[in-house]
């Protein structure tokens, strides 16, 4: 059987210039990693000008790059077996300078390597030098890099393990896991649980100062309206000594997708749940609670808390929001999904329920379906409104545009409940109320307050202010605002129309019109009356107006 062996083509060295993007950040990261592996205790970075060009000089006090002889080989390195095993160095770091060239001093020797020399096409002269303690590498900066050098150095050394001086000033280092809520060591890594924020841009893995992006599991801890933004927990990883965690060579900007990374993903998720177990309570969705079990972390059930049910408002600025409350035996879920209902139906039901004192209505949240306390809740699954005038009974929709039923004797709501998993069929319940209203829609759109039919029982004690608020929540929607008709002005005008509708039902049309005129006079004309005078205004048919002042 014929065989062959994979080899490295000689042209690879010429293509080494393309292994890195030759950016300043890449160069700094590679040289800093080399200094650390060379057992340096400190790094100094400075700039100087020579022959009209600005140079960056990076010096360390490590073992030096030329230990025995001067040798630079693509893919080869003199790192000891411990470094080779734990970090898998690529032997390509110096080639981040291949596009610009550099000068290197180490172990009493100095070499100037041009960009062409990095391709192996020409030999490099070796000079003797007195520099013998560590390694010094100098390279040219362009104008843009000169201006941003300090910022780039700060970024590259932010989580670096060794002290770094820039132009004689020591750079302040940060703890990569300083924001961690919980830290656990596992397989040569430090796994930190952090709250996710949108301002995090440094990557999820700190490989000895080099930060790498990796998408780890995000677990929802609480919802946006509980804390004004969504709160997630995720993890950040700091490498101590983990040979199994491999970075893609040579640039090391991403993690190799291997079996260990899959195990790490699982361990990160488990660590988050271990942190949650230490909390006093949690609000995890049921599926997350179940997932924690499969990872060997037993958690108590989520706190029995849900939001109170509040019908939506047509106006987005009305603030129709519920509040988070403890679930108890007096709570019921409003789980009505019939699409034939409109906002008016829900507000009529909510008003009736609030008068009854029968308990607390809660908004369903599928995230918590499965918890024992959630499954045990009684659900309201349907309702209908019946209007009664003496011996006549009609469903609410039959009373549309009817003046006959404007002041009925009784308005009754029949609502249907399912208690946990105990009831197989919905149970009918009765609820009395004093108000109902319905609007005539045209393809789901209503024309105005004149299309609303308002019913108020004869013995209703609900005041005009409450009625007005109910109708505003259902029917008011702002249009494009102008200088003349801003949001507040539009609400005020619509509120006036609602009051006229209410007065026409509670009293009669003449009374409603008188109140409307009085309201307009109060807003516009009252301030025009001379001091100490009474103004009498007579408006005659045809628009003739007579104004008389009375002392």
Automatic annotation (TrEMBL):
The cross-references to Gene3D superfamilies, in alphabetical order and at most eight, read: Histidine kinase-like ATPase, C-terminal domain
InterPro entries linked: HATPase_C_sf
The identity of this protein, by name, is ATP-binding protein
């Amino acid at each position: 059987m014929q065989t062959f062996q994979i080899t490295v083509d000689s042209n690879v060295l010429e293509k080494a210039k393309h292994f890195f993007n030759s950016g300043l950040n890449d160069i700094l990261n590679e040289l800093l990693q080399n200094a650390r592996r060379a057992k340096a205790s400190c790094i100094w970075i400075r700039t100087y000008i020579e022959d009209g060009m600005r140079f960056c000089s990076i010096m360390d006090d490590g073992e030096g790059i030329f230990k025995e002889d001067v040798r630079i080989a693509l893919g080869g390195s003199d790192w000891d077996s411990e470094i080779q095993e734990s970090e898998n160095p690529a032997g390509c770091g110096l080639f981040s300078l291949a596009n610009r060239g550099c000068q290197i001093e180490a172990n009493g020797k100095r070499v100037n390597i041009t960009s062409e020399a990095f391709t192996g096409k020409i030999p490099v002269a070796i000079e003797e030098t007195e520099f013998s303690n560590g390694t010094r590498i100098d390279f040219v900066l362009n104008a843009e890099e000169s201006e941003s050098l300090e910022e780039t150095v700060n970024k590259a050394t932010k989580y670096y393990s060794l002290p770094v001086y820039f132009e004689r000033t020591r750079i302040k280092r940060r703890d990569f896991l300083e924001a961690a809520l919980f830290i656990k060591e596992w397989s040569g890594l430090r796994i930190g649980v952090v709250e996710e924020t949108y301002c995090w841009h440094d990557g999820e893995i700190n490989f000895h100062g080099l930060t790498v992006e990796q998408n780890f599991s995000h677990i929802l801890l609480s919802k946006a309206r509980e804390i004004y933004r969504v709160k997630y927990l995720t993890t950040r990883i700091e490498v101590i000594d983990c040979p199994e965690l491999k970075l893609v060579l040579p640039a090391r900007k991403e993690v190799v997708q291997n079996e260990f990374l899959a195990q790490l993903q699982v361990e990160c998720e488990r660590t988050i749940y271990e942190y949650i177990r230490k909390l006093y309570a949690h609000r995890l969705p049921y599926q997350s609670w179940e997932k924690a079990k499969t990872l060997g972390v037993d958690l108590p059930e989520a706190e029995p808390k849900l939001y109170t049910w509040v019908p939506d408002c047509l106006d987005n600025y009305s603030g129709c929001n519920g509040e988070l409350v403890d679930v108890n035996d007096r709570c019921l879920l409003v789980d009505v999904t019939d699409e034939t209902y409109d906002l008016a139906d829900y507000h009529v039901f909510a008003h009736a329920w609030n008068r009854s004192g029968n308990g607390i209505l809660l908004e369903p949240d599928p995230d918590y379906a499965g918890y024992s306390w959630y499954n045990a809740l009684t659900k309201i699954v349907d309702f209908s409104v019946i209007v009664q005038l003496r011996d006549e009974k009609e469903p609410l929709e039959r009373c549309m545009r009817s003046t006959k039923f404007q002041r009925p004797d009784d308005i009754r709501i029949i609502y249907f409940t399912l208690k946990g998993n105990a009831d197989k069929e919905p149970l009918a319940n009765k609820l009395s109320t004093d108000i109902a209203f319905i609007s005539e829609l045209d393809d789901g759109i209503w024309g105005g307050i004149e299309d609303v039919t308002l019913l108020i029982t004869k013995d209703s004690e609900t005041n005009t202010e409450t009625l007005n608020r109910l109708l505003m929540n259902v029917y008011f929607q702002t249009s494009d605002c102008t200088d003349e008709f801003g949001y507040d002005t539009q609400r005020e005008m619509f509120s006036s129309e609602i009051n006229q509708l209410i007065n026409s039902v509670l009293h009669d049309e003449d009374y409603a019109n008188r109140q409307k005129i009085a309201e307009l006079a109060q807003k516009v004309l009252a301030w025009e009356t001379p001091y100490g005078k009474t103004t009498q205004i007579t408006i005659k048919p045809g628009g003739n107006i007579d104004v008389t002042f009375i002392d």
